[in-house]
Amino acid sequence: MLRIERTEGLAIWVFDRPHRRNALDWATMEAFAKAVQEAAGDPRLRVVILTGAAGAFLSGADLYEMSAYRSEADGRRLATLMGEALRRLEEAPWISIAAINGPARGGGVEVALACDLRVMAEDADLAFVQITWALTPGWGGGQRLRRRVGSGRALELLLTARRLSAEEALRLGLVERVAPAGQALAEATALARQILGWDAEAVRAVKALIRDGDRLPFEAALAAEQERFAHLWAAPAHWAAMDRFLKR
């Protein structure tokens, strides 16, 4: 199941299937896709934290349930359902943070990579284990991994299925922060609170300009960044901040 906790502009989504180390069955994947779709249109939502219950993050799809779905059409359904949900997550106006509180495997790492930011507990690890099941990533994780670490390193990680410690994940740029054991959610929540302290429109613009760099030619991304700056320059929040500075 997907458990959702909401406090004002912050939501915490907990994948809660501890008997399967939070592996995703169809019902949980559909609940997740619905949650992303509904949240994308919520103007009050500003930060979403994704984490797992009972000391694990996510171990991908529930292979016990998936063993009954063996056709190419079933594989396409699985790839489309989660692939589209993660694309919407990535494109949502709010900031998403993965709190990797324990082991992340296969599709679980793909979910983390689709988030905007990642906080990983120092005793957690992650691995792209799809090759051990004679599979590739199917939810967009291969492309997101390649963009982060380059083609050669992505190939090495996908073809060895080796486990990465939090320290190595940080060094490779797969996560942005490492937290003490048991503190990934607390660290992610502190980061979320800091983001919530900034002007909402400026935060959305920062995310948008970073996304522009992934999908637009360089010159077009530069032009879009300048337009966002000009718009924010004239906005009340900017001049309220300026007035506070000038009156110090």
User: Which ranges are low-confidence, i.e. pLDDT below 50, for 5 or more consecutive residues?
Assistant: none
CATH architecture of the largest domain: Alpha-Beta Complex
Given this structure, which CATH class of the largest domain is correct? Alpha Beta
Question: How many strand units?
Answer: 9
Number of domains: 2
Concise account of the structure shown:
With 248 residues, this protein is an alpha/beta fold. It is built from 11 helices and 9 strands.
Can you describe what's shown?
With 248 residues, this protein is α/β, with parallel strands linked by helices. It folds into two domains: 195 residues, 2-enoyl-CoA Hydratase, Chain A, domain 1 (Alpha-Beta Complex), CATH 3.90.226.10; 47 residues. 52% of the residues lie in helices and 16% in strands. The protein contains eleven helices and nine strands. The strands form two sheets. It has a six-stranded mixed beta sheet, sandwiched between helices. It has a three-stranded mixed beta sheet with strand order 5-7-8. Helix 5 crosses helix 6. The mean pLDDT is 97.
